[in-house]
Amino acid sequence: MDIKRVAINAVNEVIVMNVPPMEYNGQVTKRINEKMPLATVKGFRKGQVPRALVEKQYGKAIKIEEVNKVVQLALTRYIQSERLDLLGTPLPKMDENFDWDAEDLVFEYEIGLAPKFEIDMEAKNDIVKYVVKADDTFINAQIARIQKQYGKIVSKEVVEAGNDVSGVFANEEAGIHNRTTVDLEEFADKKVAKSFVGKKIGDVVSLKTKGLFADDHKLMDYLAVSHDDVHHLDVEVTFTIDEVVASEPAELNQELFDKLFGAGVVNSVDEMKAKIKEDVEKQFAVQAEQKLMVDVQEFLIENNKFELPSEFLKKWLQTAGEKVLTPEEAAIEYERSEKGLRFQLIEGKALAQSNIQITFDDLKSFTANAIRQQMLQFGKVDASDEEVEGIVARVLSNQEEVKRLSEQVVAEKMLQLFKDKANPTTKEVTYEQFVAAMYGE
């Protein structure tokens, strides 16, 4: 069989396969012979049908089946032998007038190739690795929140200063309808808070969204609007009060310390502040790592340009999934996934250039650490190695979990590689400063 590749450009080629009769005739003859005793044609007894009629009735279908088997096997072996790095899978070039009676059968398959490129992990960058610190203002606010959360709740009929009010923010035209609870002290303008004082359950208060909170991002929580909308949202909303509660702050005593942190772990307000600082900064570190990963991805995608077989991939996407897509739907899907594909290629190249491989031990260790972290969140601090290993074994017996966790291990190694090679700038900030940086403000 003659197989060759015809280059269209650096990332698009056509595999041309010339299949002579000797590649399939033997198997076609064997199948016809097997069919002879079973063939049924009107006017002949079973098993007595002339060979010519059997070939006429079944021959073409058998030939197509056997040729396709030969072609698929040869195509697979050719791709392996040539070590082709494909994106998607080969697509047969369809020809409605294909002549199955020709002496030599010629098949063509479009293929999309992964681009060839190199990555400079030490390229100059302006990426910041944030170290988020909890300052006194943040810690004191957390303590006030805790005192309120664990304080005594009293239902009220009339709103007084310092109360929380529950109700529905609404503006039909802007698509706003969200039930929430608001601490009156959250409002940026004291006059707004005062406008609630004296109101009763069922009363309606009208408010302007612009400048309603000191941080516009709070509109995302209270009004359930998107981040893209919060900075230019300037409409009037109504707030219909359906509940009023007052809170008597909990005392900062040993009973509260034990309830929050476990018996004897914290024994004073200063120790409480230190524990809160330690815990929230661990959470901040996770968020900072997530932002760093996003920033690294954006930087590497922006600074490593290469061509993709985009038109081929759009065509391939039409039939790659369970549902057949229209060309328009496939184009939308490609646009949605292109950036992820680019980073996947960059990630693989970066790890390969640095000779970094993912082992099963890496996967087991990562999974064990993740399980221990989950156990700690639920208060289980004394899990034995045997117990954790048993859970790890069960988790890794699920192929979907293995795939998901493997992607996380790769991302972790990639991030560490970037830290080591690219040396991003480290910057210590407060949480408020971090939030502003996260949203690009």
Descriptive account of the structure:
- By secondary structure, the protein is α+β, with helices and mostly antiparallel strands.
- The protein has 3 domains: 2-113, Trigger factor ribosome-binding domain (Alpha-Beta Plaits); 152-248, Chitinase A, domain 3, CATH 3.10.50; 268-438, Trigger factor, domain 2, CATH 1.10.3120.
- Helices cover 49% and strands 19% of the residues.
- It is built from 14 helices and 11 strands.
- The protein has helices at residues 25-35, 51-82, 136-149, 190-196, 218-222, 227-230, 254-261, 269-303, 310-320, 327-353, 360-377, 385-395, 399-422, 431-438; strands at 2-9, 12-19, 86-92, 105-113, 128-133, 152-156, 164-171, 176-183, 204-208, 236-248, 425-430.
- Strands 6, 7, 8, 9 and 10 form a 5-stranded antiparallel β-sheet that branches. A 4-stranded antiparallel β-sheet has the order 1-2-4-3.
- Helix 1 (25-35) packs antiparallel against helix 2 (51-82) and helix 9 crosses helix 10 (327-353).
- The chain is elongated and about 100 Å long.
- It starts with a strand and ends with a helix.
- The model has no long low-confidence stretch (mean pLDDT 91).
